[in-house]
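Pilot study result, target chain (89 residues):
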Amino acid sequence: MAWELINEPRCQVDYSGKTLNGWIQEMASFVKSIDSNHLLTVGMEGFYGDSMPEKKAINPGYQVGTDFISNHLIKEIDFSTIHAYPDIW
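Predicted structure:
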C-alpha cells in the first residue's frame, strides 16, 4: 500500500526544519524514482517549525528541527500521518 520514509525524524541542529526538509525532498524523489506504484508518507510526530512562527509558544516540539506542514507540501509525499502520544500530553 505505502512506504513510510522515516519514523519520527528529528534534526535538532537546525530548528528551522530546512535541513530535514531537504533530506525528505531528496529521499522522496529517490523512492518515487524506483517505486512509483506505492504511496509515500513521512512518518511525522506532528511538530511544526518556521511555517507557523505564531504558534511557537504552544508547539512543544519546536526545537526538534522538523516542520509537519512544509514536509507534507513536498510533491512526492502522497498523504500525511501523525504519531500521537496522548498519554504524555
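One observation from the pilot: The mean pLDDT is 90. A full batch analysis is planned for the follow-on phase.
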